[in-house]
Design brief:
By secondary structure, the chain is an alpha/beta fold. It has four domains: 178 residues, NAD(P)-binding Rossmann-like Domain (Rossmann fold, 3-Layer(aba) Sandwich), CATH 3.40.50; 84 residues, Orthogonal Bundle (N-(1-d-carboxylethyl)-l-norvaline Dehydrogenase, domain 2), CATH 1.10.1040; 119 residues; 80 residues, N-(1-d-carboxylethyl)-l-norvaline Dehydrogenase, domain 2 (Orthogonal Bundle), CATH 1.10.1040. The chain contains 19 helices and 14 strands. α2 packs antiparallel against α3 and α7 packs across α10. The radius of gyration is 26 Å and the shape is elongated. The two termini are 34 Å apart. The mean pLDDT is 94. The structure holds 3-hydroxybutanoyl-coenzyme A (3HC).
Length: 506
């Protein structure tokens, strides 16, 4: 069936975005919201999104008017009698969703397709309570719906393949990329995204790193479009908590058990952007402070140490790269720990090891002055104190990195430091999802690039980082924390030792 007329039930942030996507795609949309105030807010959100597109020159005022004209407001489900497809975007509570679908059974044509935008509930359970479970399907959009190109089309054991075909075809007509998945908690994208975001909250609440450093590590260090705490504020802390609770019930383990801070902030009503505050306060939230002023505190000379000899084949290259950057910024670099005084910089890798390097260089008397610096890429340095490093030495090391043209994050001297400690367990979850047969590498990568704006999918990131390096960091994290959630899955270990990639490159 070719879908021409659609209903959207529930006009919150996602509902309004989904209504806009349909209207932009030329479909006649009936937007139903029982609460008149919520209806007005949803329509205002849709109008302001269209205005933004006009201001950016993406739509002409006439096109914007035509799109808005395709959306009819309604207060009751009976107005959906003629719809080919109805998407429900009501709150994430099974009872509410079932109630809506029961009413839609009465209100709509018997051949209408019902889609749920649930981010966590079982589509099978939602479908099973309806008159035509074969025509109930998951159609999962990503926030902001007009921008993110992924639609997860979720089928159940009851789904009629023709309904799945119609919905996938529609997603393509709307300029989206459908990824067809079976009904499992979190589907592909949320099952990978939420445990990573949860881990970020846990690192914040245990004092592992600051809010800004956690976000900066993943934007500048991993190239993601938003830091995890900023993204939680966008998704909504209540929604994120609800998804994690479902994932925890389905999969168990620390990755999914919601961090206490996430629960506390939700209890406190700090739900993210939509309530005016979450991890950050809005409208200004999430702006990373400028570090440029720090450069003035940089020392004119430093001693540069390699990390522990032989610990890592790339160590010599890292020290040379850091020495080049410092020299380029006019800083005198000595390689002899017996000769100099002042700041000692250890050119560490992702495994850390500041004190080990100091001990190996027989420079124990300079421990308070020793700081690790890891060049993550051309933009970001992780600045890493040992337990003996003085606050003065830390300030000097950050100033030094800024003077050398880098941005910084402060990370503890633990396996993975900050970027790796957040990123590798996330990539590990992606490898585990492939290993257990739920999704193909290409589906995992499409879901995260198109649904969450990643520059490359997690499987490709793993292959590019090198599976041996990933396995080493994960094994070290597993050994350090004893958490099986960090253990590299057998598929990753096998490919790493065979020198193979997880995904074939075309
Ligand atoms: N509504 C409509 N359009 C929007 C928008 C919004 N809320 N926010 C941004 N845009 C548009 C802009 O108009 C602009 O469009 P243009 O390129 O056509 O001019 C484009 O998006 C880029 O916007 P900006 O330049 O203002 O901002 P950024 O470059 O910083 O991008 C972002 C913003 C697209 C949101 C980007 O930061 C991103 O991709 N973030 C990741 C978002 C993500 O991960 N979403 C998934 C969350 S999980 C989920 O939703 C599932 C659920 O079940 C929990």
């Amino acid at each position: 069936m070719e879908i021409r007329t659609v209903g959207v039930v529930g006009l919150g942030t996602m509902g309004a975005g989904i209504a806009e996507v349909f209207a932009r795609g030329g479909l006649a949309v009936t937007a139903v919201e029982a609460d008149p105030q919520a209806l007005a807010r949803g329509m205002a959100a849709l109008a302001s999104s269209l205005d933004r597109a006009v201001k950016r020159g993406k739509l002409t005022p006439a096109q914007s008017g035509e799109i808005a004209g395709r959306v009819t407001q309604a207060g009751k489900l009976a107005d959906l009698a003629g719809a080919d497809l109805v998407v429900e975007v009501v709150p994430e509570q099974l009872a509410i969703k079932r109630q809506v679908l029961t009413e839609l059974d009465r209100a709509c044509r018997p051949d209408a397709i019902f889609a749920t935008n649930t981010s966590s509930l079982s589509v099978t359970t939602i479908a099973a309570g309806t008159a035509h479970p074969g025509r109930v399907i998951g159609m999962h959009f990503f926030n902001p719906a007009p921008v993110m190109r992924l639609v997860e089309v979720v089928t159940t054991v009851l789904t009629d393949p023709a309904a799945a075909g119609s919905v996938s075809g529609l997603a393509e007509r709307l300029g989206k990329t459908p990824v067809q998945v079976s009904d499992r908690a979190g589907f592909v994208a949320n099952a990978l995204l939420l445990p990573y975001l949860n881990h970020a909250v846990r690192l914040l609440e245990t004092g592992y790193a600051t809010r800004e450093d956690i976000d900066r590590a993943m934007t500048l260090g991993a190239g993601l479009p938003m830091g995890p705490l900023t993204l939680l504020d966008l998704i909504g802390l209540d929604t994120s908590l609800a998804v994690l609770e479902v994932l925890a019930r389905e999969f168990g383990g620390t990755r999914y058990t919601p961090a206490s801070l996430l629960r506390r902030l939700t209890d406190a009503g700090r739900l993210g952007r939509k309530s005016g505050a979450g991890f950050y306060a809005y409208p200004d939230g999430g702006q990373v402070p400028d570090e440029a002023g720090l450069a003035a505190g940089a020392p004119g000379a430093v001693t540069l140490l390699d990390p522990v000899a032989g610990a890592d084949a790339a160590s010599a290259g890292r020290a040379a790269a850091l020495a080049g950057l410092l020299a380029g910024a006019g800083i005198e670099v000595s390689r002899d720990p017996a000769a100099g005084s002042g700041l000692v910089v250890v050119a560490i890798g992702a495994m850390g090891g500041v004190l080990d390097a100091v001990a190996e260089a027989e420079a124990g008397d300079r421990s308070a002055d020793a700081v690790g610096i890891r060049l993550v890429n051309a933009e970001l340095a992780e600045v890493v104190p040992s337990p003996l490093t003085s606050a003065v030495a830390m300030d000097k090391a950050r100033a030094l990195a800024v003077k050398a043209g880098l941005r910084t994050v402060t990370a503890p001297d633990r396996p993975g430091l900050l970027v790796g400690a957040l990123l590798y367990p996330h990539l590990r979850d992606a490898a585990a999802m492939v290993a257990d047969g739920y999704a193909r590498p290409s589906d995992v990568d499409s879901a995260m690039t198109l649904g969450c704006g990643y520059p490359r999918g997690p499987i490709r990131m793993l292959d590019e980082a090198g599976l041996a390096q990933a396995a080493a960091i994960l094994s070290a994290m597993h050994a350090a924390y004893g958490d099986p959630a960090f253990a590299p899955p057998p598929l990753l270990m096998a490919c790493a030792s065979a020198g193979l990639a997880l995904a074939p490159r075309g």
